[in-house]
Design goal:
binds flavin-adenine dinucleotide; alpha+beta; about 400 residues; 7-stranded antiparallel sheet; FAD/NAD(P)-binding domain; 2 domains
């Protein structure tokens, strides 16, 4: 061991996503014998898919603001985030040959706008550090003190000195995070909050003509308001309802309101550059005999999907007085029926409750078993927050495990 501080321990890391691989990096550097087990034929499939949209790896905003994005989980996550900040994420990627840049929104991306070169370099470095990666090993639960796996060669029992579970949340199960671990941990009295979709789209009761004509079209340069606040951006009309980054920013607020009140709406400002009074004047100036489409286009600058959305939500808008019409343009409520299924969500809320985990990320009910990443109960909007927290909790759990092993060896 480096510094001769303790004997080399056998570490099992189950789950080869960003949080598990990050823990493997730290623990192998500390001289432990690390094996990563993953059920899929290759590791980090969700990380690779995140790369398809550019891999938003972290965010450049003020750190306090960054840390606050995790809402109720900001406090328990803070120590881990302090120890691996967005600046550290960028330096880490750089060190693996992946230079990053800050996009116009403040989001940080690799210059290559994909995940594969970073992942390749990372796995190469992990293997050079002695990390063993065993794929097609599906963790089934505990076999007494051992870990039980289903493998192509049948069921296998593995003993470890300490174990990290980094099995992910419950979104996009086709990439490996199927939340099959729930039963194993619930059976050990680990307190787990139900999984809910996060960063997800919502169903809306579109009329058939609107759906057929506008599904796939984006509404750009609008603002959207919910209990989460008012944000600028864009979203997309889907066959089922609405989706896209601006909707995801409001997803937690809409989902929670639906759960508590049974109804929720996202309020859209279709003309954020103009006040309601100014719009009313501009609309009042239009020729009363002109078609409604022309009045909207000339008076409010609305056409295409924006104009159609207004008519879809407010079929009587053509008869409204200029001020009432202006008010609608500035605050058009889209009633959402339900979140899209968790299988389509970018991430999930819920998972292992913070009360079940100690400050070193060890499960209180299972000494020697640590957890990291999206399987813990936290959520955040898109913007690089998810990956940063996965990296940070992977590192924090690895350091917690190393300290626990030292203490155990010292008879503590
Ligand atoms: C389409 C999409 C785009 C995204 N884009 C971004 C982005 O740009 N920026 C961002 O910050 N975040 C993004 N995310 C979210 C981010 O990818 C996840 O939050 C992150 O991958 C979670 O990391 P994790 O290590 O906790 O779990 P995961 O990445 O889910 O990894 C868990 C691993 O555990 C394995 N596993 C599960 N069960 C078992 C078992 N029983 N036995 C053995 N292995 C098992 C899985 O196969 C998987 O490899 C995106 C997500 C999606 C779906």
């Amino acid at each position: 061991m480096p510094g001769g501080r303790m004997k080399r321990s056998e570490i099992a890391i189950i789950g080869g996503g960003p949080s598990g691989l990050m823990a493997a990096e730290i623990l192998s550097l500390q001289g432990h014998s690390v094996t990563v087990y993953d059920s899929m034929p290759t590791v980090a499939r969700k990380f690779l898919l995140a790369g398809k949209s550019g891999l938003n790896i972290t965010h450049s905003e003020d750190f306090q603001r960054f840390a606050d994005r995790f809402g109720a989980a900001s406090k328990p996550l803070r120590t881990a985030l302090d120890a691996f900040t967005p600046t550290d994420v960028r330096a880490w990627a750089d060190n693996l040959g992946t230079e990053t840049f800050v996009g116009s929104s403040g989001r940080v991306f690799p210059k290559a706008m994909k995940a594969s070169p970073l992942l390749r370099a990372w796995i190469k470095r992990l293997e050079a550090q002695g990390v063993r990666i065993l794929t097609r090993h599906r963790w089934l639960g505990f076999d007494g003190q051992a870990l039980a796996f289903e493998t192509p060669d049948g069921r296998k029992s593995v003993h470890s000195d300490a174990t990290l579970l980094a099995l992910g949340g419950a979104s996009y199960p086709r990439l490996g995070s199927v939340a099959g671990w729930l039963a194993a941990l619930k059976g050990k009295d680990v307190d787990i909050a139900d999984f809910r979709p996060a960063n997800c789209g919502f169903d809306v009761a579109w009329s058939d003509p609107f759906r057929e004509r506008f599904a796939g079209e984006a509404l750009k340069s609008v603002t959207a308001k919910s209990a989460a606040g008012t944000f600028p951006g864009e979203f997309v009309i889907s066959r089922h309802g609405i989706e896209g980054s601006l909707v995801y920013a409001h997803a937690a607020a809409l989902r929670d309101r639906l759960a508590t009140q049974g109804a929720a709406a996202l309020t859209i400002d279709l003309a954020p550059g103009r006040s309601s009074e100014r719009l009313a004047k501009d609309l009042a100036r239009q020729d009363g005999k002109a078609s409604f489409s022309n009045r909207l286009r000339k008076g409010a600058g609305l056409e295409g999907v924006k104009s159609a959305l207004l008519r879809e939500i407010a079929p009587d808008a053509a008869r409204a007085e200029p001020q009432a019409l202006a008010d609608l343009v500035k605050a058009l409520p889209i009633s959402v029926l339900r979140p899209r299924p968790i299988t389509e969500a970018i991430s999930s809320a819920g998972g292992i409750r913070w009360s079940a985990v100690d400050e070193s990320y060890m499960l209180k009910a299972l000494p020697g078993v640590f957890v990291a990443g999206e399987m813990i109960d936290w959520e955040a909007p898109t913007g690089g927050y998810l990956l940063t927290a996965c990296f940070a909790t992977g590192r924090a759990a690895a350091r917690g495990m190393d300290a626990w092993l030292q203490q155990s060896q010292n008879g503590g």
